[in-house]
């Protein structure tokens, strides 16, 4: 058994694989250093409302990292993650990739063996273009759409989503249930949607409050909730939250908006751990 601190309470996490949110914000985070909107000012006052760029770790006896956000070093230290056994990427945009350089020191100075890496071929090309000086220590394995890999009690299936070419969400299956993580996506492609229908937990892009500037690549909060409920998610977590696109919304206002869903729809939070 382990515990997770969140919202001034202690939640007991059953033994077995857990997913921890490293970051739950869209590209510029919350607060954004250049923004004085109500959501960013709330985050400056209240640590609960702060959001780093999106990534998660899955821990059982090992630690699997999904994405390498720019805040990675601080996020891993916050979660007492002392070693990364492998990395899976959803895609190669900066807010999901920029922290990869932080792992160079772990590999060269501590692990002393190449780091297993998994992504689409398109993401691999983008990653190695940006971090060409690490190509000698990254052991890449290409994942085609719907490929599955298993490690440490979790089966990961790479499912195409609606975003940049080669972007995946990951369906994670364990002895306890099914969890789908898609931090960047618009409405899911039909085959992906059918694969994740009825998942115990869906964690999905909810970038925009109000107008969706980019409907072919992201959800609004409302669109995420509509699709998540259509897919019969047991629990739906909203992530990749900008909080200040297009109209700012505070965490307090968003939690009030979700109250009618009686816990079925939740706001993901940096540092929150859930069993999977």
Automatic annotation (TrEMBL):
<dbReference type="Pfam" id="PF12706">
    <property type="entry name" value="Lactamase_B_2"/>
</dbReference>
<dbReference type="InterPro" id="IPR036866">
    <property type="entry name" value="RibonucZ/Hydroxyglut_hydro"/>
</dbReference>
<feature type="domain" description="Metallo-beta-lactamase">
    <location>
        <begin position="51"/>
        <end position="240"/>
    </location>
</feature>
<dbReference type="InterPro" id="IPR001279">
    <property type="entry name" value="Metallo-B-lactamas"/>
</dbReference>
<protein>
    <submittedName>
        <fullName>MBL fold metallo-hydrolase</fullName>
    </submittedName>
</protein>
């Amino acid at each position: 058994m382990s515990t997770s601190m969140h919202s001034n309470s202690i939640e007991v996490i059953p033994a077995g694989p857990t997913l921890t949110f490293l970051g739950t914000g869209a590209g510029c985070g919350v607060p954004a250093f250049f923004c004085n909107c109500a959501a960013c000012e709330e985050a400056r006052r209240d640590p609960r409302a702060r959001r780093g760029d999106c990534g998660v770790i899955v821990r059982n006896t090992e630690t699997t990292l999904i994405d390498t956000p720019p805040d990675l070093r601080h996020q891993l230290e916050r979660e007492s993650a002392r070693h990364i056994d492998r990395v899976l990427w959803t895609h190669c945009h900066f807010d999901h990739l920029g922290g990869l350089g932080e792992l160079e020191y772990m590999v060269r100075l501590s692990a002393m063996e190449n780091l297993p890496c998994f992504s689409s071929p398109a993401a691999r090309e983008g990653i190695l273009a940006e971090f060409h000086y690490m190509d000698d220590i990254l052991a890449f394995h290409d994942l085609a759409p719907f490929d599955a890999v298993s490690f440490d009690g979790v089966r990961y299936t790479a499912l195409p989503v609606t975003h940049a070419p080669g972007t995946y969400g990951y369906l994670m299956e364990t002895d306890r249930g099914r969890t789908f993580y898609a931090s960047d996506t618009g409405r899911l492609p039909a085959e992906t949607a059918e694969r994740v229908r009825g998942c115990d937990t869906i964690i999905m892009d909810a970038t925009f409050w109000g107008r969706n500037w980019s409907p072919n690549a992201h959800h609004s909060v409302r669109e995420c909730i509509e699709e998540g409920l259509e897919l019969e998610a047991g629990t739906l977590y909203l992530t990749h939250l900008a909080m200040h696109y297009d109209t700012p919304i505070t965490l307090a206002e968003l939690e009030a908006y979700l109250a009618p869903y009686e816990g079925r729809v939740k706001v993901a939070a940096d540092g929150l751990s859930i069993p999977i």
